[in-house]
Amino acid sequence: MPRFSIVVPSHGVAGRLSEALDSVLGQSFADLQLIPVQDAPDGTAGHGAPDAAAAETVTARAARDPRVAPVHSPPSEGLAGARNAGLRAATGTYVLFLDGDDLLAPGALAALDARLAETGGADVVYFGHERVPWWEGEPSYPAGPLLAGAPRDAFAPDRAPRLTGAVLPAWSAAYRRAFLTERGLEFPAGHFTDIGFGTRVAAEAERMAVLRAVAVRHRVRRQGNRLGLPGGHHAELLDRAEEALDRAAGRDLPEQRRGPLFEQLFAAVLKTATHPRRLTRRERRSFFRRASRLYRRHRPAGFRAPGGRIGVQHRLLAAGSYTGFRVLRAAGRAAGALPSRLRRARGLRTRLYYRARLRRPLDPRLVAYCAYWGRGYACNPAAIHAKARALAPHLHGVFLVEPDQAHTVPEGVDHAVIGSRRYWDVLARATYLVNNANFAEGVVKRPGSVHLQTQHGTPLKTMGVDQSTYPVVAAVSGSFTRLLGRVDRWDYNLSANPHSTRMWERAFPGSYEQLEYGYPRNDVFLTATAADVARVRRELGVPEGATAVLYAPTHRDHEDGFGAGRLDLEAFCAAAGEDVVVLLRAHYFYDRGAPGGGGGRVIDVTGHRSSEEVCLAADALVTDYSSIMFDYACLDRPIVVYADDWEVYRETRGVYFDLMAEPPGPVARTPGELARVFRDGDWAGPGATALRAAFRERFCAFDDGRAAERVVRRVLLGEPPEAIPPVIPLARRRPAPAAVPLVRS
What we know:
Layout: E1 4-9, H1 14-25, E2 32-38, H2 52-64, E3 71-72, H3 78-89, E4 94-97, E5 103-104, H4 108-119, E6 124-132, H5 144-148, E7 173-176, H6 177-183, H7 193-204, E8 208-219, H8 235-250, H9 255-274, H10 281-298, H11 308-319, H12 322-336, H13 348-358, E9 363-370, H14 379-391, E10 396-401, E11 415-417, H15 421-429, E12 430-435, E13 450-453, H16 471-477, H17 480-487, E14 492-495, H18 498-507, E15 513-516, H19 524-527, H20 530-540, E16 547-551, H21 569-576, E17 580-584, E18 602-604, H22 611-617, E19 620-623, H23 628-632, E20 639-642, H24 646-653, E21 667-668, H25 671-679, H26 686-699, H27 707-716
Parallel strand pairs: 1-2, 1-4, 2-3, 6-8, 9-10, 9-12, 10-11, 12-13, 13-14, 14-15, 16-17, 16-19, 17-18, 19-20, 20-21
Antiparallel strand pairs: 4-7, 5-8, 6-7
């Protein structure tokens, strides 16, 4: 029997879960059982498990450490169900509950074990925790004053009446497992489960102890606690409060214990009642009236309300005066209010026009699409638009493009020029907004609108707020505060693999829902035919029988310009073999919309309308650190990494993993090495095939040819998650055939 069992729910915390689990497994005190609670019944990643990235993280830890014992709890059972499932599987003498985005402090279990030895054990041991700001600021120690007043030895609850269980979260204590099972203590279903569980534990415990040291580092989410969101669930706070107060009265707890319990519970009740957004006007009235009845029924004899404004709220609650309470609340809001301003649409006339259009109702049929800040009909938005025309013909899509790209929009696709009146009209009235970058700073997120962020690649390099520690990148990234304001508009965010899910959560913290559906633009890699490949090669001018090598380098923040001199492509062709031609695809920052072309054996395809078609035409890919490698891997064709400046790039841009240790194929550091890889056949040899297979397993998890369909059904048609087509396993997929046949990995 282990000394400690640590239960860690994993739903919705993919970006930080690995750190949470490692903070447990890395403890100096090793006599433990770690119980991650997953969505997927078998612990495997895949469609149908809302957190495939989390499942992958758990599976990896369980494979290498026998102390990890995953269990299953469906998302529908919520946090309470996950914790209860973990509790039922626990075998340790003491049980701890750790949220999946928090950390167990180094040495926490050793300190806790020593404290238990000093005190002779207890039913519950409360310990300190830090609240760590998500961005900047000093950590706080909110439990400090409460724990400081407790006795230094083990004690009966009457000796520490302020330890009511209503204030400290469930993850700020260790519980004797036999005590919980003997008393039948579990987390109540629904919201505010910590209050329901904590107050019952405190009421049932006969022996308590405290550890004043910090044992948990609670990492505050940027989007805040889920309990702070608006909604009718706040009525459950009153349910939990009523249960706790009824229990205290039924057990005839002394007044010295009932007073602190009453005060702490109504501090939470009043915080909700006065909050500007948690309750609607109607909900606020009914919430206040029920709270008032509860207050009068359970107010302990001799209870003295706090002073100041809070005391006034207590007196109004006791009197049942909602009118007075509403006046007090309005006065407080007026004193603290700042004038609201509409984010700028440039030009006074444009701002006024946009403001006027915002007063009109949303058009339930209108979908606004945009790709790469208006560079044309491209990427995931274009693929979703095309699929929506087939599956949701009642919807009307409008593509938003820059003036110089309007001529590139395919015939039959409605479009609006960015900056025009129609552009602002579409943005004001569209119910659905789909983008692979971000809409203009001044776009307002209207109630009832649905924003889908599709992204446009798998992140190797740091993104979003993770760029802030890299000065070269941060200097050109603009305001991170504004970036996060744009993130707050997202309702859904698309992911192509579990790695992306974790990184998006880190880089773009927000309250959006992650859709692990794959990238719609990559569907064509699984649906295209040999005839499609031949057609694109003819259009690009690839000679019959040639081996077409796509060269697609990425942008470097520390350099000016494209840096075309990085690799002499004509010399490469000459050295690599007489049948080799190069398709040059510059980063889209350097695409000026010019038609493809080039001299000799180098064909410039930077201006071609579709990077997906260029990939279909290529027999192999050469890139440095471009995210195109993750998309191209869906084709199961050879990839060679040309990494002549990896160390510089890694230090100046920042990366999420070591590409040199986990490449998709052979790595070349010099032009000579690159040519030799092709001349000697290593680019398509067994070693390259093995590397590519491992890479595809990790990064092509959801790209199976049906991503666009999943997105349209879930986002535009509103179908429930369980009705969405499952992801086809990697082994059953058949990518589009290459012009030069190769053995698949």
